[in-house]
Predict the 3D structure of the following.
Amino acid sequence: MLSQLRDASDSHRSLTIVVAMAITTILMYVLPGLPPLSVVQGSNIWYDSFANAGVFVLLAMGLNVVIGMAGLLDLGYAAFFAIGAYAYAYSNSPFSHTDLPFIPMLFVGAAVAGIFGILLGAPTLRLRGDYLAIMTLGFGEIVPIVFLNLDRFTQGTNGIGGIYRPEPLPVLGAFSPSTPFNYFIVMVVIVTVTMILLYRLQDSRIGRAWNAIREDELAAAANGINTVTTKLLAFSLGATTSGLAGVFNASKLTIVSPDQFLFTVSFTVLAMVILGGMGNIWGVAVGAFVVYNIQVVFLKSINGIIETLGIPAFDLGPVHVNLAKVPFSDYQYLLYGVALVLMMLLRPEGLFPNQRRRQELHIAEEFDEGEQGEITGAMGAAPGAAGDAGGTL
Amino acid sequence: MSLLEASRVTKRFGGLVAVNNVDFTIPEKSIVSLIGPNGAGKTTFFNIIAGIYDPTAGEIDFHGRRVIARPKRAWLEPILWVLPALLVAILTIGFGVEGRSDGSIILGLALTVLALMVVLLIGVARPPKYQRFLVRLGIFKSARPNDMVVTGLGRTFQNIRLFQNMTAMENVLVGMHTKLGSTWIDAILSTPRDRREEAAARVKARELLALVGLKGRDDQLAKNLPYGDQRRLEVARALGSEPVLLLLDEPTAGMNPRETQQLTSLISRLRSELGLTILLIEHDMRVVMGISDRVTVLDHGEKIAEGTPDEVRRNPKVIEAYLGTPPAEAPETETPATAVAGTTGPVVEGSES
């Protein structure tokens, strides 16, 4: 039964994604009104945080193309997020005296970020591993600093504020800060479409080429893959997804400023990709969603929850512990660090691993188990074993 | 007619001369072997042909067209990349100065950036038209490995370099990369063309796997295949690009006699059935002498002999290279290896780098 279901979902992947996202959306619509979630915050605030989480889901899925599929370590991913956001701010704010429609601007912002992805990638993608990481890290630092110092065009630290709300949607009505439901629905649609497209790419000739480059770049080139353009495509498609998220985020917050795009964003998204399971599209999406909600919703409301549960303050030896007063949200990055270390120790392949990655990371264990059997086997079949040994040199 | 012609190819790594002034031709539809002791420069020569190293001197013609040689005026190319963007920038500034509005400055910047992007993209992708344009300007750049595959060269590696965590089928599909035309846009739109091509590619890949004797192993991960099968899978992957010339770097290294025999017959079938030309590096003399039309011997980077297997077997220089000079002349020579060139094998070699 389960395997039949799996086969069906493999052969009708796009449909599966639509159905799965529809079910998830219904759950996300219904659950905030019911006890465990409704205690924490109101339904509208939940929709708002779901929409915000969607921004990070998009970012994580985009970074997954770069890191998980093509194997390029990108530490400056927030730069493209910033470029997408500023592109929208220019097209839709009192500062630039323009008011362009939201939906087309999603594509334009994404395209602009993609162009910058190509511009950064073309000269640098000959670099490998650590060198590329440092390059992208530099770019990620440069972009916010440029936006900060170019104050004639960007208003520096103040950022560009008062970005207009998108025009009303046909059925759902106007976008407004008090009813974040529109943003939530738009986000669900964007994430669904992006996910379908990414899955198609992954299963295509291009996806295979990315995989091959990640496995062995020289062998990939010797099989006719133009490694530079293929890597460039991964890099700029990642940037495009990031730009899309940037446009959405700018429109939702109605302000862009350089401090929204610091290294912590790149780092957070990278952590989401690793926690979710690098290389697995839906795993990364779920990882980003969970991490965002823990970070922003759970940590903030943990004190409130303790109060409602009525856990009293107690003395632990000489220390007086009052859990309700501990500022958990200040310890965000501490908890992050602990979670990452634990993950690396216990489940290095992430929560929802890509099958391949899992095998790569557990190869040592398999080897340990397999070795015992092989030694006894080798005794019985000396010529073959000797041949193997010669070959593995 | 010769398919590949290398003349006076030299490659130096710092002070080490790995390949020295080697002339080499591969006639069409022949099996040519390259032999020599360890460190003789065989694999280096191979890598030059495959486009991985640029030669220090000399040139290689493939299909009568110059594909590999020392780069000429390559420093001009980056200048060529910046030039158009610079031109656009100057033009937009020229027009923008009169208006002096922020809008025109931003537009000028955007146009410059776009021009830079287009040129960079072309420069990085190096389409044939661009390469011809470069040649007309007097700039020559050696073909890269992927260019060589497009012109019809397939290769395997001495130390197997399969995509370990991909299935046998996927490995062959990667090999067919250049023969599939669907772009990323086809892929995300899932166009009928893309789906048709993908289905046909799978059929073809299955045929190739059956050809090398890996029928029914499509879904196994490459790293889980037995050693001999991995070698065969590498051949299947190289065949995916429908090459004219197939370079095999020690295809039977580490195989047992039965596997070696199977692979030898596969190689001769590749020529008779698919009409391939094959260049072989091999240490197992039974394989070399059995199937080669011509044998070339390298030692210390230099070609010391060339000819039919029989001629090479009797060549005193070759015997000397493999066994050292007779004890009467050089008493301190090391103990001869068990293998006498041309009579017994295999001489198993470790890694040569």
Q: What stands out?
A: Chain A touches chain B through 49 residues (CB under 8 Å).
